[in-house]
Fold:
Amino acid sequence: MKVETLTTGDSGPIDFSSFVEYNQETQEARIKRVALTSPEIFDMEMRYIFEGNWIYLCHENQIPEVGDFFTTTMGRQPVIIIRNQEGKVNGFLNACSHKGTTLCRTQQGNKAAGFACSYHDWCFDLDGNLEYMPRMEEGFPADRNLAAHNLTKIAKVETHGGFVFGSLNADVGSLGEHLGDITEIIDMLNDQSEEGFEVVRGTNTCVYHGNWKLLIENGGGDGLHLPSVHKTLIKVVQMRDEELQKGKTKAAKMIRVDELNDKDTVGATYAMQNGHTLIQSDLPNPEDRPVYARHETFVERHGEERARWMSSKLRQVAIYPNLFIMDQLASLIRYVRPISADRTEV
Structure:
């Protein structure tokens, strides 16, 4: 088994083999618990994964107008995603180039007039260009170069199907190479509607005391925990079905998630390129899903097999390292933000 040795900075080199138990006889590898608790390996993950590779940032629907911004983090770096005057999506470190003061202090908002730092009133346009410094003529030389103090750009910002990704590493491969075949799943989601995929307002955010990889493993490949962990959801589905049969409610039928783990239900889990995973399963009652009403249209446009994937299957994709797209009872985006080795925001 090939094991890399990477450097975490001040902590020195880390040998991957110290986090893995490998059985030569059975050819099995088991990750040690310390891989989920070590601050050193968390530091390495921030450097090489969240600050060195492509990660999900936001959806274009969250910044529809000129000047709309969304703030998040890339590893340990706070960043701003904003739409400029031409409609292009830009990304910058959320820090004034003068003294590092935070420029945008809310998660979302609008800066159509540009950025004005609250500390010394340095002003930047939507492309990150420094336009104004107070008392420029008094405190700076005549040959001053404003461009030398522009905001620090995120090295790469690209979109696919409305999903915005970025990387702080200018030498990273293309977004297409990173996503690979997962683009098919994103495209299916957008093709379900003439208007594409729209993110509605509102979020549900929580912080759990655990490593970020636990959630990636759980949502990215563990389809067996449904009847144990989601008992309340299953009970709600069963109660709704009983009420409908007795004529006690006119509410819409729900997808029978309580039957997804039945032995007759066909499903699979796929390990894709670059750490991405896909869980898919035939839906027990696809005709009760709103999008099923367009099944025949999907067949005409995309063929029988793709139409079946779009209207009659549960699809849950984990785009490594920090995004889940879940098309099941509803279409949901789950964003994962590591805070420390034992704290994660979802």
Observations:
- The two ends are 33 Å apart (CA to CA).
